[in-house]
Design goal:
2 strands, 5 helices, two-stranded antiparallel sheet
Length: 120
Amino acid sequence: MSVRRNYRGARKINDIVQKGADERFDRQVERFYSSTKWRNFRFLVFDKYGINCVNCPENFPTSLPQPATVVHHLIEVRADWNKRFDLDNVVPLCEACHNIAHPEKCGKQEKPIPEYALTI
């Protein structure tokens, strides 16, 4: 009796296993961003850089820096899990600058730039 190997089926199984691993990692990332440790780390970031967006002067040179609402990882958590609490890997950004940094998170269409960013 010979065993017939179905390589196409093996690839499908590997894809299913990988998809499950990706979903588990996504849940781990979601838990990380909702953790108390992350919320406390955000305060350290604002202590280091201040409460204003660090990219506003570069992205919108004619307007004043806006209050930061997001702590942005320069190297994403999904790319390097070990850098998630590295103070040199994060910066405070306003929503507009974060949308510029991550247009893919806004869907195919970029979110409109807030009115304050358009002032000259």
